[in-house]
Design goal:
The protein is of the alpha+beta class and 419 residues long. The protein has 4 domains: 93 residues, Rossmann fold, CATH 3.40.50.20; 61 residues, ATP-grasp fold, A domain (Dna Ligase, domain 1); 124 residues, ATP-grasp fold, B domain (D-amino Acid Aminotransferase, Chain A, domain 1, 2-Layer Sandwich); 95 residues, Phosphoribosylglycinamide synthetase, C-terminal domain (Glycinamide Ribonucleotide Synthetase, Chain A, domain 4). The chain has 13 helices and 22 strands. The longest helix is centred in the middle third of the chain and has 21 residues. It is globular and about 55 Å long. It starts with a strand and ends with a helix. The structure holds adenosine monophosphate and glycine. The site of glycine has 7 residues, from loops.
Length: 419
Amino acid sequence: MKVLLLGAGGREHALAWKLAQSPRLSKLLCGPGNPGTARLGTNVPVKADAPREVAALARQEQVELVVVGPEAPLVAGVADALAAEGIPCFGPVEAAARLEGSKAFAKEVMAEAGVPTADFQVFTDVPSAEAYAVAQGRIVVKADGLAAGKGVIVAPDAEAARAAVRAVGAMGTAGQRMVLEELLEGEEVSVIALCDGERYVLLPPAQDHKRVGEGDTGPNTGGMGAYCPAPFLTPEALAQVGERVIAPMLAVMRRRGAPFKGALYAGLMLTRSGPKVLEFNARFGDPETQVLMLQLGEDLLPLLEACARGRLEPRALALEPGASVGVVLAAEGYPDTPRRGQRIEGLDAVPAGATAFLAGVEAKEGRLITAGGRVLTVCARGKDLVEARDRAYAAISGIRFEGMHFRRDIGARGLRATP
Ligand code: AMP
Ligand code: GLY
């Protein structure tokens, strides 16, 4: 099967790595891809979030399945353009991708589906939002539109709440509407369901590390590392998330005429009164996907194809034993203003058993240089979380670029919870 994979990050390198192992893959095109995907398939220069350009490329190359990595192409309507051409696409149409594109819309659907989430209010002007936030004290302020994981501020007191509303209000279009939300406490877990519009299968629960600093300090990022399976959700509790969160969301989206095909990512807070949804994403998580692909014990391609064609068979997925850990190596200045252009060294020396997925990386004159905030995710699998973590950090010890920083505590919460 000829596949076009859209995106250029670590998630896409990991998806390409897994797809490349499929005996059913005949050719993999990555648009635009990165130097990591170039080793596994053919990179093609396409603007991934330009629906007509993508559809024209897919038609011309006689692609049989398009897999969409990032949210921007989905929100731009790439899946709609492909549907019009009759080309199967793993990734929701624009109307379904709104679950990620608009937090206010996601809340509306959750209410209709009876899915547990934080209490919230939507505001369109800063002064009313500020008055409400200060009155509440502890609060979470979220920009309504897409903000690359950076449009959320957790404010523990009234002063922080005031500053957060002002900061989000000043963010431009994404900040024009904001959602003010009850501050929830508990372990955070990412549950990703592969969906065919009606049915789903669940990937094992993963835990991301959103804050830039060790011990979960500093500003939010796109994610500084992940591991799976996260021990906080037992297999039974995971199945319940499927029944109480994923299934009702799929049912409501179908009823609304926008069936969800693709990866439905539920960001959950495991509160004392049960799991509550913090956010939905309409795609695979990054860096969760990097560890999930190590942990998935079966061919990814037929699963994605079944979702795209609306023929998924609900069942438990085959998984590798043990656990996987992935550590993001970030550029100096990330998440604010990452510095680019630093030469990356030591990637050839990554030991067998570990994998470095490339993200913000560019090839120039035969060398790899940094070209984004999150540069690499170094991943390893082990018989348990300890071994996976030790292998991942051992692999990192040989990699260098100027200003490189990473968290040394990826997996620590999971280790504390494991007897
Ligand atoms: P989101 O993009 O909505 O997932 O928010 C990014 C991060 O902010 C989440 O991963 C949480 O760490 C935090 N967060 C979001 N909403 C809440 C909430 N209601 N209570 C506590 N933390 C939250
Ligand atoms: N790792 C969080 C996300 O992909 O949104």
